[in-house]
Amino acid sequence: MSSTPAFRRLPRAVREQQMLDAAVRAFSRRGFHAASMDEIAEDAGISKPMVYAYLGTKEELFVACLHREGTRMVEAIAAAAAPDLPADERLWRGLRAFFGFVGAHRDGWIVLYRQARGEQPFAGELATMRSRLVEVVAGMLDDALRAQGREVRETDLEVIAYALVGATESLGDWLADHPEADPAKTATRMMNIAWLGADQLLRGETWRPTGE
Amino acid sequence: MSSTPAFRRLPRAVREQQMLDAAVRAFSRRGFHAASMDEIAEDAGISKPMVYAYLGTKEELFVACLHREGTRMVEAIAAAAAPDLPADERLWRGLRAFFGFVGAHRDGWIVLYRQARGEQPFAGELATMRSRLVEVVAGMLDDALRAQGREVRETDLEVIAYALVGATESLGDWLADHPEADPAKTATRMMNIAWLGADQLLRGETWRPTGE
């Protein structure tokens, strides 16, 4: 890139990121319906017509926020959970990347987890992203089982994966409300909860109700 | 109550429940914003002015739905998890009551879990209900520990409780999308995931990353 004097107009891509930053902040704090294009434009230091020209309607802006934050989150997790490591290491690295994302992008997490859910048509996009995470986790558990020469039914893997993803999201949301908590320590806590349980399950141990 | 001929006008309480049933169905399928008072009145077989007269605005009707479904769910769980049983039995009975609620009140669950989240001011009510569940689960784990003469820090209990509640909600949502799945069997599956993990944690076992 050529060197540019400080007063030169910012490139479009940089401006767009500033608008998205402002939009994520506004949607996180006030929700999709209450957040206004006026406050987003003002926070980004850009005129409202330019926000519309660059990123479209409020709906399109919200979708752009979901895409950016969701992609950041999923890519961070996928990059961390390298497939050549043992299953527990992969799971822990994935968890560390996830909690790292929540710690560093608290507003992004809140838009994804609290504000987009229940909002048609955004809820569908979120459900798709979540299904992808569930598949990744189920695949990781399947690899761990196959490495031990074992196999469990696909439904059982899916159920365990749903539970792990739900537990992790819930703790991610806890972290978003506890900025003083350490993301890496939270990952180790979640790993203790997830793995000590999954490890026994994968070894075929089961809990049974008594007296029923 | 005096015996009433079949053609007599229904008592107010019965009509209100019919309106709430229709409202829960509409909010579950279409969300708060898209659902209309017209379709709710039509589904309940009641005139729209009467819906307004009995249950107020659409916002008030939505809150009434949240209260009814949330109270049903929390009371079912609290009644099942009798305090004089061992911790694993209490947890399992609580889980069975929870998945039983989701199986029997699928629309109610969807309104609570998918439609109310992110909708101000309803999100606050949901967060309060969720905190109550987290407290109940943390208290149950604390009882189990004290019965073994052990104690862990309140934050650790809270973190485990958040993870368990999140895992259970996630699997409840899976059940809502799988009407062919058995609620009691889903409870046992969740118990296996939750308890085999929690049991080791409560015995003081921990997972540690290697090579870090």
From TrEMBL, chains A, B:
SUPFAM superfamilies documented for this protein: Homeodomain-like, Tetracyclin repressor-like, C-terminal domain
DNA-binding stretch(es), residue numbering of this chain: 36-55
PROSITE patterns membership: HTH_TETR_2 (PS50977)
Name of this chain's protein: DNA-binding transcriptional regulator, AcrR family
Taxonomic lineage: Bacteria, Bacillati, Actinomycetota, Actinomycetes, Micromonosporales
GO molecular function terms attached to this record: DNA-binding transcription factor activity; transcription cis-regulatory region binding
Domain HTH tetR-type: 13-73
Record GO biological process: negative regulation of DNA-templated transcription
PANTHER family: HTH-TYPE TRANSCRIPTIONAL REGULATOR RUTR (PTHR30055), POSSIBLE TRANSCRIPTIONAL REGULATORY PROTEIN (PROBABLY TETR-FAMILY) (PTHR30055:SF158)
Keywords per UniProt: DNA-binding, Transcription, Transcription regulation
Keyword Transcription: yes
Biological source species: Micromonospora pallida
Domain of life: Bacteria
